[in-house]
Amino acid sequence: MNDNCPVCGLKYEIETGFFWGSMYISYFMTAIIGFFVAYLDFLVVKDPPVWQIVGCICIALFVLSPITFRYSRLIMLYSFGSIKYDPNAGKHKKQKSSF
């Protein structure tokens, strides 16, 4: 993740260690994903062995780890960072092109 927004220049990390709290959000998201994948495994295979359930959960979490990483930081930023989305924030920088 960038230190600053490439469009408007906003600094994402409000204070040192601000995104450490996103680890808890990420943990919650991965727990939900793990339960959902295990439930789907039980629906598809009626009585799966434990190694199959653990394998499916590990594969799903490995594939979805970039998504959980990014969205946990976004949830932390929007919930506790007092940052609001402004669609017009980067328009003045786009007009100052050197082409």
Give a verbal description of the structure.
This protein is mainly α and 99 residues long. It has a domain at 47-82. The protein has three helices and no strands. It has helices spanning 22-44, 50-80, 91-95.
What labels describe this entry?
mainly alpha, 99 residues, 3 helices
End-to-end Cα distance = 28 Å
The percentage helix is 55-70%
Q: pLDDT under 50 segments (min length 5)?
A: 95-99
Query: Number of DSSP helices?
Result: 3
Q: Could you tell me the radius of gyration in angstroms?
A: 19 Å
In N-to-C order, the SSE pattern is HHH
SS content category: mainly alpha
Largest sheet report? none
- Average predicted confidence as pLDDT: 82
What characteristic shape results from the CA principal axes? elongated
Query: How much of the residues is beta strand, in percent?
Result: under 5%
The total strand number stands at 0
Sum this structure up briefly.
This protein is mainly α and 99 residues long.
SSE layout and pairing:
Blueprint: H1 22-44, H2 50-80, H3 91-95
